[in-house]
Every structure is written in C-alpha cells, then in structure tokens.
Amino acid sequence: MDLEKEYENWNVECKQDPLKVLPNELLNLDFDIVALQETWLESGIQKFDNFTLFSSGLECKKHEFGCDFYVSGEFFKYVKDVKIINERICCLRLKAKWFSYPLINVHAPTNEKTEEIKEEFYNLLEQNINQIARSDIKTIL
Questions:
Q1: CATH number of the CATH domain containing 77
Q2: Is the pLDDT of residue 47 over 90?
Q3: Taking the model in full, what pTM does it have?
C-alpha cells in the first residue's frame, strides 16, 4: 500500500465534532506534522496527551475555513513558534540546526470568490512570506 497516494487528498466530510474524530485518525497515520484545512475549529492552541493542535479558525460557529497544524507530541520540541494570521493563513516555524523551516498553511479563495477577496488574500500571504528571513526554507501548503 502506498500511504502517500492513499492520503494525498484525504477529504473527510463529517457531521461529528472534528476533535472527536481527528485525533484517532491522525495517530493511526503516524505522521509528525499534518497541515489541515476547513476543520471548523476556533482559533488557538489546544494541547492533548499525544499531540498539539494549532488552529486559525473563525471565532464563530460558521463551519467554514480554518487552517490548522497537528503536531505529534514527540515532534513538538522542534516547534519554534506559530503565527496565526487569519482563518485562511497560519505559519508554523520549526527549528533546524542552521535555520528555521516555516510551514505556511493556506486555504486560498476559490475561483468563484470576487477579485477583491482573492487579491486581499494573496497580498496578505505575500506580505507574511516577505517577513520571513531569506535564509529560512519556506514551504507553502
């Protein structure tokens, strides 16, 4: 079984609370970091026994957007910081030996959104990318 192919577009629509379903599924996958979109969780940091969840969702219960990072307990020691920009963009900075490794998790607007919304999103994304040190290796997810 090719795990990468099986889970590369893992899209789960679920009517249950994501925090009741998500932890067990992610623990079974044995990944250290997972970027998630549309989890519908409120913005903030939630610590659990085996992992930490960094969420950039809306503060209301609209059930839309949200960019999150799931970080396993063992990998948490490499997290330098997290920057929650808005419900569509968050950045998790990992420490490496000689540089930082920022992972930028985005939920970009779809084509049916107005040009104004798309332009605002990409301007904000570019602005935040430009604030990251040039020596850091950036990855946009």
A1: 3.60.10.10
A2: no
A3: 0.79
